Amino acid sequence: MPKITAQDVKIPVDVLDDARDLYVENYLKATRASGRLMLYACDQKMEHLNKDFYGEGIDPSDNDPEHLFKIADQGICGVLAGQKGLIARYAADYPEINYLVKMNSKTNLVKTKQDDPYSPQLYSLDSVLAMRENGVNVVGIGYTVYLGSEYESTMLSEAGELIAEAHANGLIVVLWMYPRGKAVEDEKDAQLIAGAAGVALCLGADFVKVNPPSAAGGKTSAELLAIASEAAGHTGLVCAGGSKADPKEFLSNLYDQIHIGGADGNATGRNIHMRSLDEATRLTKAISAITLADYPVEDALAVFSGERDFSL
Questions:
Q1: Which of 184-198, 232-246, 284-298 has the least mean pLDDT?
Q2: Residue 243: its pLDDT value, please?
Q3: How far, in Å, CA of 228 to CA of 251, rounded?
Q4: pLDDT at position 200, please?
Q5: CA-to-CA distance for 69 and 60, rounded, in angstroms?
Q6: Mean pLDDT of 272-299
Q7: Are 205 and 231 in contact (CB under 8 A)?
Q8: Which CATH superfamily is domain 6-305 in?
């Protein structure tokens, strides 16, 4: 099992001296002292509205927002990522979860053909720090940038300011980096995704969440992902989980993303929360077995099926 200690954490120099210990503590919490991130994405209630929470192929329990927190509480993940209001409404009942506050969001109602995407900052970092002071286990923040959007400069500016402020207060930062807009011809082009990873590095993010590139030129998605992982440098790269998929296929792709593509973890939402509590909980353990403990796919599938236990 990959293990790191406080001495192994690369602390950015924009983390102030009196916040260094807190930054290390939060980094170790978020990565479960592995150096890899298992991010449980729960920001879709705003991003995708209710279509990912109710309907055919979705367990009925997913329509209740508390389902998200029950899964994180009973399963294994590094952080639960969601908007501040969502976390504020449920964190008192689930105080042990590591929370990452998503600082900006938008709905999917306005399409690119109508207007380029812009995801506005929803609240100040001070309000997040106040929630932390009130006892909520906030270890980091997240922010989405749509590279190629005509509003790109605003999002880059907001992200840069937030990263500087968050690091100064000992928080880690994950950037969602998605090339998107009328200027973007192929959102999953390998070089474009590598470029997005490099932008996240230049902004100072601790982790960058990207979509896996499309296979091309005789190379698999995982092989092309390696370009982005290298371009990310000291910023850890994690892949978005995408829509609900067969567990074996999903876990196999995850294994390849880490061991061929050089990813430093995963960021999974729909593949987890669309399932029943029992199944979703087992899947978080299977994902974490690969991400945090280097389990091979067959062993992770045994964890998912309940034939094998996994704990940290």
A1: 232-246
A2: 81
A3: 20
A4: 98
A5: 15
A6: 98
A7: no
A8: Aldolase class I (3.20.20.70)
Q: Which two tokens stand for residue 7?
A: 């001495």
Which pair of tokens denotes residue 84?
């501040």
Q: Average pLDDT of 110-138?
A: 97
Pairing of strands 265-268, 207-210: unpaired
Tell me, yes or no, if 209 is annotated catalytic.
yes
> pTM surpassing 0.85?
yes
Domain ranges of the chain: 6-305
With a cut of 90, say whether residue 228 has pLDDT above it: yes
Catalytic residue among 27, 90, 178, 255: 178
- For the chain, what is the HEC assignment? CCCCCHHHCCCCCCCCHHHHHHHHHHHHHHCCCCCCEEEEECCHHHHCCCCCCCCCCCCHHHHCCHHHHHHHHHCCCCEEEEEHHHHHHHHHHCCCCCEEEECECCCCCCCCCCCCCCCCECCCHHHHHHHHHCCCCEEEEEEEECCCCCCHHHHHHHHHHHHHHHHHCCCEEEEEECCCCCCCCCCCCHHHHHHHHHHHHHHCCCEEEECCCCCECCECHHHHHHHHHHHCCCCEEEEECCCCCCHHHHHHHHHHHHHCCCCCEEEECHHHHCCCHHHHHHHHHHHHHHHHHCCCHHHHHHHHHCCCCCCC
Q: What is the pLDDT of residue 1?
A: 65
Task: Report, as an integer, the average pLDDT of 121-144.
Answer: 98
Options 102, 209, 285, 295, the catalytic residue:
209
What is the residue type of 208?
Answer: V
The amino acid at residue 43 is D
CA distance 23 to 173: 10
Active site residue 118: no
